[in-house]
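Quick one, probably user error.
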């Protein structure tokens, strides 16, 4: 199965695949609304705002596996993200990123980067416009860190 054939469900319940984002550079991140790192939503939204016109998307997948820090419903998560951080980038339905119920997207991301489990909320993966995993970043790495921005810019079309 290709990266783009991986099934996903949007936070509003639409079943689709990653093919919706084929040809775009992506930053995929597991998110949580009640985490010490939740403030990273601000930087994630800023990245999306700064680079969307060049074919870049942030894709967030809420996850409740780390300290039950994402307990809300999909509607509550959406409202929280919009109200507190102005989030306009796509969010997926809540899913597991570790364990036997790991979402296929996270199975792929982990296998492509050596197989280690996701450490915590807000672990980040940069994906090329052809679906290759370019980098994996620790949850504590700020979304606007130089190493993330440089990797994104290196793979976006020149303006």
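Nope, works fine. Designed sequence:
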């Amino acid at each position: 199965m290709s990266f783009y054939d991986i099934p996903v469900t949007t936070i509003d319940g639409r079943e689709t695949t990653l093919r919706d984002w084929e040809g775009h550079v992506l930053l995929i991140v597991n998110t949580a609304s009640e985490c010490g790192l939740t403030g990273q939503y601000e930087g994630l939204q800023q990245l999306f705002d700064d680079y969307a016109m060049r074919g870049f998307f942030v894709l967030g997948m809420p996850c409740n596996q780390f300290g039950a820090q994402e307990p809300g419903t999909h509607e509550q998560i959406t409202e929280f993200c919009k109200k507190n951080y102005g989030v306009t980038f796509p969010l997926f339905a809540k899913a597991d990123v570790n364990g036997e119920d790991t979402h296929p997207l996270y199975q792929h991301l982990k296998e492509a980067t050596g197989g280690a489990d996701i450490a915590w909320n807000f672990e980040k993966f940069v994906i090329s416009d052809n679906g290759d995993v370019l980098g994996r970043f620790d949850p504590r790495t700020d979304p606007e860190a130089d190493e993330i921005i440089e990797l994104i810019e290196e793979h976006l079309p020149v303006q």
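The two ends are 32 Å apart (CA to CA).
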